[in-house]
Amino acid sequence: MKQAVKRSFIAALILLLCLSIAFVAQQYIELSQPGVIVLLYHRVEQGGIGNKYTLRLSSFEEQLGYLHSQGYKTILPKEIVKYVQHNPPKTIIISFDDGTADHHDIVYPMLKKYGFKGVFFIISKYTDSPGSLNERQIREMIKNGMEIGSHSYSHPLLDEMDISGIHYELKKSKDDLEQICGQKIVSFAPPGGWFDDRVVKVTRDVGYTALFGCEIGVNDLTKGPFVYKRIEVLSDLSLQEFKDLLNPPKILSYKVSQSLKVILHDLIGSKNYKKLASYP
């Protein structure tokens, strides 16, 4: 009896090891595919405030300087349709979530300085609120080559809402932003990066042409994706670690860690995952 239990335990360990190896190998294969990288930022402050989502201006400029020195070019979500035949070399999309005031006061001037353009995903409910972009700033940024996308109307956890609530959040935001911008809003980024099949369907139905999540990876434009992966840039990255983000196979451990978090999230749901993630 003991021998049978021991053999079963060993067999289970071998199976787990094989599955783990296969899982890591799959992650590596995904990161090694050709495609365009989308970088995800949140805030940029003059001195930084000790928040992992808030970069110091000096770090942000160092990163932009590196991209410029290496000959990187930026494209916008609305321009992706031009590249369905190939993945242009050394081409990235730079994105910013939340529509905070620093996006106009700090980020946008820095992008212009280095000849880059970016897409800014805005929570439309907070437009003109203290600490957020106002209508004049948004129109100025569009006039100077930036793109505006939706980050929902009020920033809820969409995968925890019913279908009518999801539709309201996406449609209301799109309508608000199109009125401000005077042009079509084609891209959407779900709050927290969390979404499910219902969110994807509503995103299509409402009229967006691209959804930008938070899964780490590259995007093969020749496959005409609707859901785009993004690589998040956090405040504690060194310049070398930032360089590694531009060579995705080097961030395999980052990708594996995120994939495990996604599995946990899918098991317990967004609300419980948010509580768990904030537990000290």
Structure summary:
By secondary structure, the chain is an alpha/beta fold.
Protein described:
The chain is an alpha/beta fold and 280 residues long. It has a single domain (31-249), classed as Alpha-Beta Barrel (TIM Barrel), CATH 3.20.20. The chain has helices at 2-31, 57-69, 102-113, 135-143, 163-181, 197-206, 239-245, 252-268, 270-277; strands at residues 37-41, 43-45, 54-56, 73-74, 91-98, 118-122, 147-150, 187-188, 210-212, 227-228, 231-232. Strands 1, 4, 5, 6, 7 and 11 form a 6-stranded parallel sheet that branches. A 3-stranded parallel sheet has the order 8-9-10, with helices on one face. Strands 2-3 form a two-stranded parallel sheet. Strand 5 (91-98), helix 3 (102-113) and strand 6 form a beta-alpha-beta unit.
Salient structural properties:
280 residues; alpha/beta; TIM Barrel; 6-stranded parallel β-sheet; 3-stranded parallel β-sheet; 11 strands
Mean pLDDT: 88
Structurally, the number of domains stands at 1
pLDDT < 50 runs, ≥5 residues: none
Biggest pleated-sheet summary: 6 strands, parallel
Order of helices and strands: HEEEHEEHEHEHEHEEEHHH
* CATH topology-level fold name: TIM Barrel
Q: Estimate what percentage of residues fall within beta strands.
A: 5-15%
**Spatial extent as radius of gyration:** 20 Å
CATH level 4 superfamily: Glycoside hydrolase/deacetylase
Cα distance, first to last residue?
A: 44 Å
The outline comes out as globular
Assigned CATH architecture: Alpha-Beta Barrel
